[in-house]
Amino acid sequence: MTEPFPRLSLDAPIVQRLLPRLTEIAEIAMADTVAAVPAYAHIPPEILAEEILPAVVQVCAGFVKSFIAEGSLDPAEVEAIVEYATRRAEEMIPFETLASALFSGTRRIWRIVAASARPEDTADLAAFGDQLIEYIELLSTAMTQTYVDVQETIFGPANEARRRLAAALLCGDDVGDLPSNAGIILHERYRVLALSTTARPSTTADAVETVLTRRRVRDAQRIAENYARVPVLTTFDGHSGVLLLPIEPDDETDLLVDGIAKLLNDNLFAGESEPAVIAALPKAAVEAAEVAALARQLGRPPGLYRIDDMLLEYQVTRPGTARDRISRKLDPVREQPHLLEALHSHIRHGLDRKSAADELHIHPNTFSYRLRRVAELTGIDPAEPAGSRLLAASLTISQAFPGH
């Protein structure tokens, strides 16, 4: 039986030469991995720099610490490995790619260390290689288990059934066995949260865009489930979609929307419905999406909106003869932007003409003249309460439906 190599300590010269170069070696190993593993070329540069490089540095540092801990992984190292493997699994990076990256980087590190060895380091180099293999075995075992667990959790039959269940509920279709297949007990009521980001999805099947989109989907679902404390049914595709929240309204939904927006690093408009029974979910989803879209069209800031936040605006923008006739009230001034600008400012500032004029950087008399021209051309006096309301409604329709 072959005798085991004696374990090295941090004092070994070959280890001491390694320590000052940990970050440099990690950067070289990562660059070699990206070049050697084609799938890694599709990972966005920001993920390489902000996630993968720090993980490689931590792995290198963990290996150095293993000289003290006799080859074991401490909890912090295990947590870092689990997080790294979880992210790659969520991005649907094939496991063979993950394994290739690990061993490609390890091979590069071994070659760097071997190249720095001196004749008197022969025994230490052999022991170093033995400990490196032992450490990589621990890493690969932890990564494999994590990857299998995440794949089953995210992409297993139950999760596919949940996506199909959400789509069926929002379409009003018969859900059949989908709830049991998804491991879900349907609630009596759900609040619909319709999400829409300002970023436009890519129109090409770009590998980098695919990775980022998968991450956006998982980040949104993760924070929603942390908020709801139960599995959340969703159709969110990374840019738009719906969350079904099986909880009663509270004051924290805006925190959920803010949290998702921060994770996505994107502006987010959200429309929230009142709690709806299963049969009413399709209608609630349409209403929630319309509220979010209307807030965006009217130039409101990103955030959470409910129909009570814009009752008048929502009603006057519904299709119908009245909407069309109200919209046409502004036809005589549509080609005169200075008059429309004055009318907008008048509506915002009410009777405070000085503030309205100051906003436009014009004299109050000039502002008053422009309002009189609006009255002359449209036949509606913005200085009268009834006229002001009618013109405000027409402006709202124009903002919601440009060119209407």
From TrEMBL:
Instruction: Give the top-rank taxon of the lineage listed in the UniProt record for this protein.
Output: Bacteria
Q: Which residues form the RsbT co-antagonist protein RsbRD N-terminal domain?
A: 24-161
Note the InterPro entries from the entry.
Answer: CdaR-like_regulators (IPR051448), PucR_C-HTH_dom (IPR025736), PucR_C-HTH_sf (IPR042070), RsbRD_N_dom (IPR025751)
Q: Where is the PucR C-terminal helix-turn-helix domain?
A: 339-395
Write down a Pfam family by its short name. Answer: HTH_30
Q: Could you identify this protein by its name?
A: PucR family transcriptional regulator
The record lists the organism as Antrihabitans spumae
